[in-house]
Specification:
This protein has 185 residues and is α+β, with helices and mostly antiparallel strands. Helices cover 36% and strands 17% of the residues. The protein has a three-stranded mixed sheet with strand order 1-3-2, covered by helices on one side. Strands 5-4-6 form a three-stranded antiparallel sheet, with no helix packed on it. α3 crosses α4. It starts with 6 loop residues before the first helix and ends with a strand.
Length: 185
C-alpha cells in the first residue's frame, strides 16, 4: 500500500461511486440471480481496480470473480496472478466492511504474504485495514479468548485447540485461553 494512505482515504475517495455495493443482498440471492451477480461483479471489479490503481503498486491487473465455492472466507486472492474470488455473503455486509475486504485482499496481492505474516499484519494495522472479517463468512464459529486481550483467534471447527483451550496460552501475556461457540443470528 502506498505510504501514508489509509482505509479512511480509500473510503472518502470511493464514497458514492458504487451504490450497488451499498445494497444488502443475501448469499443465496446473489447465487440465484445471474443478473444481480453480474451487476455486483461489475461493481466490485470497478471498485477493486480503482482502489488498486490509486492506493497500491501492483505489477499485474486484478481479475475478479464472485464464487459460490467460498464458504468460510469472505474473499481469497491468488497472488501470483492477482485473481480475487469474493464470497457472495460479502454483499450482506455494510459498505465500509466491503471496501475494507477489498483493501485487505489487495494487500495480499501486493505483498504476496498471508494473514499470519508479521509484515502483512503491520501493513494492515498502519493503514487501518481489517485483519479478519468479523464472522469469517460462516454462521457458526468458535472463538479463543484471552481474559486480557479479548478474542485472539476464530475457528470454524471444534478442533483440539478448541476442546483443550485451557492448555493454550496468549502469546502476548501468557494467560490461559477459553473457547466459546458463537452463532450469527
Amino acid at each position: 500500500m502506498r505510504k501514508g494512505k489509509t482505509l479512511d482515504d480509500i473510503l472518502s475517495h470511493v464514497d458514492g461511486m458504487f451504490p450497488a455495493l451499498k445494497e444488502d443482498h443475501s448469499r443465496q440471492e446473489v447465487l440465484d440471480n445471474q443478473k444481480l451477480r453480474d451487476g455486483l461483479e461489475k461493481s466490485i471489479t470497478n471498485a477493486t481496480k480503482i482502489i488498486a490503481s490509486f492506493y497500491f503498486d501492483l505489477e499485474k491487473e486484478v481479475s475478479i470473480k464472485i464464487s459460490g465455492r467460498l464458504k468460510k472466507a469472505m474473499a481469497n486472492v491468488r497472488a501470483k496472478d492477482n485473481f480475487i474470488k469474493y464470497n457472495p455473503k460479502l454483499f450482506s455486509l455494510d459498505y465500509k466492511e466491503i471496501i475494507g475486504t477489498i483493501a485487505h485482499e489487495l494487500v495480499h496481492a501486493e505483498l504476496e504474504r498471508g494473514d499470519n505474516d508479521a509484515y502483512f499484519q503491520s501493513t494492515c494495522e498502519l493503514a487501518g485495514i481489517p485483519l479478519h472479517a468479523e464472522t469469517i463468512g460462516v454462521d457458526n464459529y468458535w472463538v479463543l479468548t484471552c481474559p486480557n486481550h479479548g478474542v485472539v483467534a476464530r475457528r470454524t471447527r471444534k478442533s483440539k485447540v478448541i476442546k483443550q483451550a485451557d492448555r493454550y496460552h496468549c502469546s502476548q501475556c501468557g494467560e490461559s485461553l477459553t473457547a466459546e461457540k458463537r452463532e450469527e443470528t
